[in-house]
Request: fold
Amino acid sequence: MNNDLILLGHGSGGRLSHQLLDELIIPALSGTAQASQNDAAVLEPVSGRMAYTTDSFVVDPIFFPGGNIGSLAVHGTVNDLAMMGARPLYLSVGLIIEEGFGKTDLGVILADMRRAADSAGVRIVTGDTKVVPRGKADKIFITTSGIGVIEHDLQIHGANARPGDKIILSGTAGDHGIAVMAGREGIKVGCDILSDSASLNDLVAGIIAVAGDRLHVLRDPTRGGIATTIKEIALQSGVGVTLREESLPVNPAVRGVCSILGLDPLFVANEGKLLAFVAPDVAEQVLAGIRQHPLGNNAAIIGQVEAAPAGKVRMETAIGGLRAVEMLAGEQLPRIC
Amino acid sequence: MNNDLILLGHGSGGRLSHQLLDELIIPALSGTAQASQNDAAVLEPVSGRMAYTTDSFVVDPIFFPGGNIGSLAVHGTVNDLAMMGARPLYLSVGLIIEEGFGKTDLGVILADMRRAADSAGVRIVTGDTKVVPRGKADKIFITTSGIGVIEHDLQIHGANARPGDKIILSGTAGDHGIAVMAGREGIKVGCDILSDSASLNDLVAGIIAVAGDRLHVLRDPTRGGIATTIKEIALQSGVGVTLREESLPVNPAVRGVCSILGLDPLFVANEGKLLAFVAPDVAEQVLAGIRQHPLGNNAAIIGQVEAAPAGKVRMETAIGGLRAVEMLAGEQLPRIC
Reply:
């Protein structure tokens, strides 16, 4: 019996489960050797409306340039809360582990979850661990959920885009998806392409401070990329959108890999970028604020909202044409998150 | 392309994902054809302390006598909240689906999740769906998280068992584990063994009403069974426990399967039973109340808390001996939840 590997018994709820919790999982995630180990965490009262979200992470490979499945799971859930304008408070972590997975790798993943949570100012307060036989899962899947508090009365949601709104993208398109794919396929891209996986809650707090009720929509363009996300918002709000291809920031190395592989960066997932739809009179000021943030140096206004045609997204191409932008059809890059 | 099967593209975040959400998942879980589909659900303010929990479900088979992975996931999370004395309010659902899984089966599972949620008075408000390639998961895994409100000032937790406390088990031991195992192995057990999977929040509300601050510990004996759960509580509270073998209620069919297979019902998982540690002066009244509840007909006092030896659990056997009860070692019945 190899002491470095996860065994079925580690998911039994019995002695081995307790050992794994006490020796590895709880110290890594909570920072204390002992936690109360009741069926649920008790949270102090939260004043005001809350945001609540969940995401399952099945990224392949679990370690990729710029991150891993653990940090990604924290960033993804923090960002889903931040996109509602909520301040993230608490996370839960559900682990599904394949028998034979290495405890060392598990330790690295958990340590990075903790680091990401600390950095975002959020606490991991409850969790669960299951183990399935070899071949019944792929290494490790992580499902995080999160609770945040909404400390404002703003209406920030996908149905609130208004004609005239400027659309700000907080940085370059497609870095996460291409970094994961390069990691999976063993494509040598040097140090030029790293996942953008990051927590956006601090950036969002700054945007809200500047824009107030002139901030109408926030969304992080993850699966399906910027194209799919903007199409969703156009449909939810019943508005049109015009994007300018020349304005879209793309890391040259990402553009290179995309052109070799026939991918459009507009459809490739990001995990540390946001789209902000803001009233035109405040757009330049919001953009300037985002650019001063470490996660927003490459931010740009990439398009604007039109009164019509409702639900349609069009791209002004570099050569002056107009093409329709639709949602991602099929699956371009599986298991990107 | 078979229209009845889940495809990788259903996890892409693109057009197929939206179709699956709009046509199957959201109508099944929320009961409305349209939901807001933002990154997070917005919850109205909750007054008081909250309980927060998560569980991942990997049960095999996904359909078993008396339930399926969907109803089990709701019951399990509702119960984790109820065991803190919390009233369950909201659930999240993270689905990890293997490519090629049937949409019909998915629909049945989701419908049963909804039915279980309705029955427990809890709302499924947010979710996520991922699809992994064939062979990278086993049909479907479900991770639920839940939020409940704690509407009392009682101290109900595993470190609060006190010498003299009576230990009440709300029904027969081991039904869930044996039902799942019978389903998996194709053992013919007729209609005599069904999973006990059920939501215990209503039963808990009744116990709190009767016992008040004389209720010290609530715990549902799931993975690892009654033995492991009581050992945990003895360790957390620094007390001893004496159990009486003759008092343990066991369905005769479950006892039969256990004796054939060499299993001890004391270590087999339940999913609709609870252990209540209550002060002796209120024990009979609490027991009577539990027995009047549809989920508690077979409840019994199975033992009591002793001042010493701390952390030790002993069983008085039917022939008058005393044996030590330890936590489940290794994995007796994998993937029981």
About this structure: The mean pLDDT of chain B is 94. The first strand of chain B starts at residue 41 and ends at 43. Chain B touches chain A through 90 residues (CB under 8 Å).
